[in-house]
Amino acid sequence: MHVSHPRKRSLLLTASAALAVTGALLTSPTASADAAPAAAAAEVSPHAAQTIDNIGASGAWWVNDLQHFDPKVQAQVAQLLFSPQGLGLSSYRYNIGGGGAGVTTPARAAEDFLKSDGSYDWSKDNGGRTFLKYAARYGVKDLIGFVNSAPAQWTTNGKSCGGQLKAENESDFAKYVADVTDHFARQGVRLDYISPFNEPDNSFADCGQEGMPVPVGRRDDIVRALGAEQRARHQRTGLIADESSRTTQFTSEIPQWMAQPGTAQYVAKLAHHTYDNPDDGRLGNVYETSKSVGRTPWATEICCFGKGTTGWNQEYDPTIDNALLMSRIIYKDFATAHDSAFQWWVALASGYGSDPTTRNDQGWNDGLIYYDPDYATSGDQKLYFTKRYYALGQYSRFVRPGSVAHNVTGAPDGVEVSSYDRNSQWVVVVNNHNTTDTALNLHFAGKAPVRATQAVRTSADENWARVAKPSVSDGTVHATLAARSITTYVFDRKDNGSSALSGALVGRQSGKCLTAGASGAAIGSCTGAADQSWSYDAQGTLKGANGYLTAGGSGLTAVSTVTGDGTQRWLLNADGQIVNEASGKCLDVGGQATADGSKVILYSCNGGDNEAWTRR
């Protein structure tokens, strides 16, 4: 977004300085001491949730500007994004351009490779190709080619914006995308996934950027055409879809087109955006929808929130305030939607508004790093860093592909904790939204941490700073969280058997206890009786007095033996939801009843208090 602005006063960090900070992980002069044990400890679930596939960002738009920068600056940007000393991104979204016909913003008019005679000019899209090759060279795990618009000659309006793909050109489009995939493979750059349309629910009629609406009834046609073409060529490239703008559209539209005959076989992952600022209920619905069609969900785009909320707002805020909002979104996507990937929108942007170093209402929170929109005339190729860059790195540098998420319940107010198990280590990322230092005790029921090896923090005046390591005793971590901060802890761990959690489960709305019955469960006044005691283990089973709580076709039942399937596996979410892994539905007190004996059922997660439970 090109805007006028005064000359810059100072840099947040130059590219070389940022690499120096990330490489050295400077020791904080104000590292907090360990906290005294708090009255209660948050609990890391002994049961594994989803496996993390990747964390990444998009190469849309900014590469068209950066192709004009000094190669040394381009190399610095690649280091900042892809190297272990930078963000260490494990996915990168490469924009397969549509030619930019009709697009009114030059930087958002991405070149395509297709010539009018049907041949190819592989010298096009120099900026995009440059950074895609950098990503491959750095070994980024998942390279994703995504399409905003098909080449203009195949759209209904002859433009790269606002027009639909003509039905008679679906096979041409499929062959084009497969040709691009094959070309890059010959160049030593393998695209691991292809997304054939982006935000198909958007009209893109204003032509401010490339974009192609795809009605729900056409999405399966395009997926099948491309999937069949890939399969015929023996391409090892997965297909992701449908990149809906809003979770509400994802949950209503995915089942429609995925159910069409011959479609699901070609879909590797489900992709959604979160521009509707979803609450916990709608994030839970993402998980439920994904379970209903048997695919893993990915959060593949978000940006542009601000003014103190995670909802869409025009603002440029390079401070820790917006970084904490970003970290909350990442946390929610992993902990409530149980997404297996988080991908930020654009890694770089130029729309910082009136000043790149201070918050203002003229710019946009769409980038991690910014550059001068007038670089062509000013010659300014400096890079300006936001705290969002460092917030993403608190995850991407440590939560590596293959990490397994474990839910965390009982965190202090204002604190969000996510935990990941990988290679005999625990990685714990903690957001402290409070304006004061906050004590955290964190207990691990299984695979106990034995010592902290790293503690890295980003706050108002710290960027990936090494800080005091927390103490560990008897499987419990004791730490003090700095005010308004994001901290990542790494612990060595040891297996200590299959520990289980036990106790009562109390409904937030009713104040009553989950009570085992012959035909499932109900609520009742808490008495401490055996039928109100539940055991939760590493397999995810909830065992009550009458057996294992099981989600069957006719509702909840108690089964005396462990079957090992998803009907007996449950996730205890941080927000209090207890989610069945087979259906993605929540334990719900029917009709929001509060009387003793009221039946507990399975119901679509809605974020209501009748679906929230606290372990006691």
Provide a descriptive summary of the structure in words.
- The chain starts with 14 loop residues before the first helix and ends with a strand.
- 21% of the residues lie in helices and 27% in strands.
- A hairpin with a 2-residue loop joins strand 18 and strand 19 (462-466).
- The protein has 11 helices and 35 strands.
- With 616 residues, the protein is of the alpha/beta class.
Summarize the structure.
The strands form 9 sheets. Strands 8-7-6-5-4-3-2-9 form an 8-stranded parallel β-sheet. The chain has a 6-stranded antiparallel β-sheet with strand order 13-15-16-22-18-19. Strands 14-1-17-21-20 form a 5-stranded mixed β-sheet, with no helix packed on it.
> In terms of per-residue confidence, which ranges show pLDDT below 50 for 5 or more consecutive residues?
1-38
Largest sheet properties: 8 strands, parallel
Question: If classified by CATH, what would the architecture of the largest domain be?
Answer: Alpha-Beta Barrel
Query: In angstroms, what separates the terminal alpha carbons?
Result: 51 Å
Top CATH class of the largest domain: Alpha Beta
| Mean pLDDT reading | 93
Number of helices: 11
Helix fraction bin: 10-25%
Number of domains: 3
What oligomeric state do the depicted chains represent?
single chain
- CATH topology description of the largest domain: TIM Barrel
Strand order of the largest sheet: 8-7-6-5-4-3-2-9
What's the count of strands?
A: 35
How large, in whole angstroms, is the Cα Rg?
25 Å
**How much of the polypeptide forms β-strand, as a percent range?**
25-35%
CATH superfamily of the largest domain: Glycosidases
| Mass-distribution shape | globular
Helix vs. strand class: alpha/beta
